Amino acid sequence: MKKATAKKNSPGLTFIKVFLIAFALILIVATPVTYLAQRALETHPGGADTPILQDELDSQVPESHPFYDAFNSAEKVNILLLGVNQGLTDTIMLVLFDTKAKHLDVISVPRDTYYYRVGFESEAQRKLNAAYRGNPVNTAKAVSEILAGAPINYYVVIDYKGVEKIVDSMGGVPMDIPFNMVYNDPYDKPPLSINIPKGNQVLNGKKAVQFLRFRKGDDGYPGYPEGDIGRIKAQQQFMKNAFKQALGFELPKVARTVYDNLTSDIDLKTALWLATKAAGITADDITTYMMPGTPLLKSPYYVYPNDDEISAMIAQIYGIEPPAPPEQGTSEETPGN
Question: What is the CATH number of the domain that holds 236?
Fold first, then answer.
């Protein structure tokens, strides 16, 4: 059977590893000493009505939890990064920032991850990306449950329009495009039209979003020869170029645009504190993970979380021994059955 693949240049996992990491770091590291320092310390991107995660989500795990001591003793600040499109969280990542070691572990969680909720019975509603419903607290609760109870302290939300404005604020991002990128999907919302010529150029905001969403070409036009691996390499190069451009082009202006186009419950006082902890962080201090799971290769294309492997991943990140797996001979019902 042919392996199932995405039918479109999906927003999920496109601008995430590029933008949400890059510009969340700019928000934390750069803006407190420029634009943010001019604001009241208690304010945060999004305004007075922004939900405060620590007020609404109980991040404490019971003492019987195998990671209870690790979660409570670790000097980590965990930030949920969400890329929102058409009211769904198409991109979901959890950044675990070790403030002592100055290291970031980034867990990508597929938007199609199976997440059952009582009262939400349709196939689409059982996907993690549908948990959002306009409130990041809903997604934070779900992600914490899926990732072995990992605490989540704050969130950052951005959409494509925000990405476009941020790129334009830095004067675009220089890139060497390896081939003509051409792709059209009139049924996407909004309709997707990618047309970027080969060669060295500076991508404005609109073209940058096209570049980050590109995965394959129309008939007769090339895509990345290595598929998703090629796309990831291109995105990594874009991230490096964007960092370099942002730090050298009117940083206060870029910082203001970043601040104005994010919704977050990270207040300025916290941002200032994080800035002192994050000073000196580079791309070498970031380790990325994909949530362990089993994909369903037919509709509705769920990704079922692998609880044992997720626990092992969290244990690795927190530097502890993973909990013992359940005894052989026990059986668990497959989710949704």
Answer: 3.40.630.190
